[in-house]
Amino acid sequence: MSSACHESGQPAAPLTQLPQVALVGAPNAGKTSVFNALTGMHAKTGNYPGVTVSRFAGTCRVGDRRFAVEDLPGSYGLDPVSLDEQVLVDVLDGNGMRAPDALLIVVDATTLRRSMGFVAQVLARGLPSCVVLTFTDELLRRQGAVDVDALSQALGVPVVAVVGHRGHGIAELREQLLDWSDWPTPVISPPEDPGERDAWVESVLSYAGYGAAQPHGRTRRLDAVLLHPILGTVVFFAVMVLFFQTVFTLAAPLQEGVEAFFGVLSGWVSVHVTNPWLSGLLGDALIGGVGGVLVFLPQIMLLFLLISLLEGVGYMSRAAFLMDRVMGRAGLEGRAFVALLSSFACAIPGIMATRTLPSARDRIATMMAAPLMTCAARLPVYVVLIGLLVDPAATFGPFGLQGLVMFGLYLLGAVSAMLAAWAFKKFGDRRGQPTPFYLEMPPYRLPSPRAVLLAVWGAASSFLRKCSTIIVATTMVLWLLLNLPLHSTEQMQAAGVDTADSAAVSAYVVDHSYAAGVGRLVAPVFDPLGFDWRINVGVLSAQSARETFVATLGQVAAAEDPEDPGDALRGMTYSDGPRAGQPIFTAPTIAALLVYFAFALQCMATVGVIRRETGTWRWPLVAFGYLTVTAWLMAYLARTVTALFVG
Amino acid sequence: MTSRTFELGTDGRPRSEGRCGERTLADLTPSATAQVVSVSVPDSPAVARRLADLGFTPGTEVRMLRRAPLRDPMIYLVKDYEICLRRAQASCVNVVEVDR
Amino acid sequence: MVPLHPQRCADEPDLLRWVIPADLFDSVGVVAAAPPPLAGLLADGTLAELRLEPAAVLTRLGPWHSWGDQGARVRGALHAALEETGGWHVVPDSGARGGDAALRTLAQQLLDGPVGQFAAAHGGRIDLVDARDDVVTVRLAGACNGCPAARSTLHGQLERRLRQRYPALRAVVDHAAR
To answer: Distance between the two ends of chain B, CA-based, in angstroms?
Structure first.
């Protein structure tokens, strides 16, 4: 393409002075591929002010003129039934923001008969409009027909046929954009009365020689299997197992690779930076923090690769159809299943996957529930704690008891996630009607590699740009808390620490850090749970990422091998207070810890990504607050119940 | 709040009372074909209009294609495309069955 | 309800062509009497003229009115009037055949519009020679003339579109081939 749309390095007019062109259309009309074809890789995602609805904007350059292009939320009509559609109507009305100067109405040619009602409603707004007809190639393949020029004559507005994934018609659409201020408008706006509107649609389509597409044979045959009550369910679970395996297992070596790389990097720093404190700050805090961001990338990219493939092929709607009844119990819809399933691997990609949900309320409810799903980071913590709690040889029937406890924790996570979603949905739906559920079943199509790659790229870059600062900053702060104030070698030797033993040194540093001070300060809060200040420090340090609990607790317990602190922990006793001398890791305390970890939102990256996806601090704070309080209450309950059984 | 039903009848104008004894989309069995008579949604004119926007306008032919494993939701063929509705929404669309 | 939609007429902003199903009327000419709602619009001067053409009703707006204000009213009246086609009284056009004039108008519109643009885009021109007895005669000029591919494409386009609007069309013939 010669007149590629991109931002160049040359100074340009501010975005607000450019003509604003907005894309409107139904959710499956191909709006996004038209948007991508116009704006290229330079789309910016953000949020509409005050609402958790994502805003996609970019610029398109035609010759020496530039346009601000915005992809508005998809909808089937202009009477809003959800928050996202309210945003669409507010934008069109210029309510609280600048109204677009011109509209591109994106319409799937294979669903033209249904879409004309939407076209009528949009044209009635009176803005300069151009109809962009997508999937005309598919219409022809399926023995349908439409005369684009006649359609344009009948509608009274320009019509451009575009095959988004091939780029056909995009050049013509760009040319058309140049004339936006001269676009003809309908001499009489289309009727609002439903009967008259139907008559109008009928007349326009017959004038345009519209022939409906024949049913899609491949789709019929595939659906006979994929939506079959039994076969379809089997295939669905097989797909989901594969999906989960890919996100969970395939990402693991990549994540290890990232971790190993940053391990080498921080090792290099500790060798070459002689000042131990500076080397710790650079090596552990900064490089560790950046590594802590990048370690999520493989999962996010894999997840979005899979989601956009499944979405592009059309299977996502089928999966949602199959799971809708089950998810309906939690007040959610079928599409939320994928987001919650991904959260088993990690809540970050899971929360980002809520973008596929069309209703803002569903997105919020799913985001609030996602952190409860047992993510990979909880696994090492569970392994260590269950190892302390349950004898490896113990069995219950044919099953090992350790495995059963682990399974129970996964179940606890899933059930409480569903309950949380249900509660938030119910709470959010207090006012007004619940959003009605409807879901288009598009024919199976081959997704374009470009669209898939753009989705992966978009997810990865927005995560890096928006979340990296939050994660790196919290890692740094926690590191500082755990390592300040500074202790000189003399001070430590005076305190009787063997300065040659790095484990003893780090134990001393942590013991006397600000974090330890905080740990002692919050002791009254965690005392009922049986946590002593050392566990508190572990819990606090786990606040940036759960898996650090194992290492931190190891440091605190001064274990020889901080990565396997089990033995040292078993021998740990309360150092002060009324329980001094008693072992800390009794069954009730461990149960309380396990349950605390199952519920608490100890992941600053999750907080960051909720902030980024909702565009406000309100929801991350709500999530953090409710999960911490629930964690404490449930841990207390677990401790009490376990104490009753153990005695 | 009083309970009102918003209904779009064959003449396209809202009617105040619903007709009883009619079948709805939710009553159709797979591969049955029916014609939409009216759309009536208790308390929500926006949802009634949305169902019309989705293609369920009076006089339109609808074919029930399949049900999900747990019998809800259901997929319908209307105006040349396939759409999935939950029972709650499907039962708002009054139809008469058409013999084929 | 009878399917209908309005279209502009080139160069005549006060004239509007309402496309209706081709089989609704078989006469062509000035409408002398129409069912009440439409007759009312003629009487109060909202509409200055009402004509039937093949597959269309032509309405000319009265002075000091605009389609933006009156369009929806005119549409409503048309819908009502088209429900009772028996109430329409048409004075057939004088001359040999009323249909010929309508066919000429339709063909000229297409040549001024999409078909003409298509020809121009390919470096050619297409002129209307005659419209008589449901047969349209055209002359191809410019790059189109002599290019068999362009000739058949243009010919096919014009004929197909014309037949949509004027089902009685018998043929489109090329002047040179006669």
So the answer is: 43
Residues of C whose CB is below 8 A from A198: 1
- Name which of A149, A188, A199 is nearest C114 (Cβ-Cβ): A149
Answer yes or no: do A321 and B73 touch at CB < 8 A.
yes
**Mean pLDDT of the B43-54 span:** 87
- Inform me whether the pLDDT recorded for A83 exceeds 80: no
Higher per-residue confidence, A154 vs A379: A154
Greatest CA separation for chain B:
43
Please name the member of A187, A203, A204 whose beta carbon is closest to the beta carbon of C67: A187
Q: Are A6 and A55 in contact, with CB atoms under 8 Å apart?
A: no
A194 vs B45, B57, B82: nearest CB: B57
Tokens of A481: 């808390």
- Domain positions in chain C are 5-92, 98-177
Q: Which residues of B touch A111 (CB under 8 A)?
A: 79-81
The pLDDT tens digits for A495-531 are 777 766 666 676 677 777 887 788 788 888 888 888 8
C17 beta partners? C7, C58
- The chains in contact with chain A, meaning 3 or more Cβ pairs closer than 8 Å, are B, C
In a domain, A590, yes or no: yes
DSSP string, C19-41: E--TTS----EEEEE--HHHHHH
Q: From chain B, pick out residues whose CB is under 8 angstroms from the CB of A320.
A: 84
Interface test with B, best of A28, A82, A108, A114 (most B CBs within 10 A): A114
Domain co-membership, A327 together with A367: yes
Same domain? For A234 and A202 the reply is no
Domain with A195, as residue range(s), is: 15-214
CATH code of the domain made up of C5-92: 3.30.1370
A126-139: pLDDT as tens digits:
899 999 999 999 99
CATH of C98-177, one of 3.30.300.130, 3.40.50.620, 3.90.1180.10, 3.40.228.10: 3.30.300.130
Q: Provide, as residue numbers in chain B, all residues whose Cβ is less than 8 Å from the Cβ of A29.
A: none
Would you tell me which residues 107-126 of chain C have a C-beta closer than 8 angstroms to some C-beta of chain A? 113-114, 117-118
The reply to whether A561 falls in a domain is yes
- With helix as H, strand as E and coil as C, how does A251-318 read? HHHHHHHHHHHHHHHHHHHHHHCCCHHHHHHHHHHHHHHHHHHHCCHHHHHHHHHHHHHHHHHCHHHH
Q: Which CATH architecture has domain B5-98?
A: Roll (2.30)
Q: What is the pLDDT of residue B4?
A: 54
Determine the distance in angstroms separating the CA of C117 from the nearest CA of chain A, rounded to an integer.
10
The domain that contains A148 carries what CATH number?
Answer: 3.40.50.300
Q: What is the per-residue pLDDT across C39-79, written as a single tens digit (0 to 9) for each? A: 899 888 899 989 888 788 999 998 888 998 899 999 999 99
Please tell me whether the interface predicted TM-score (ipTM) of this complex is above 0.95. no
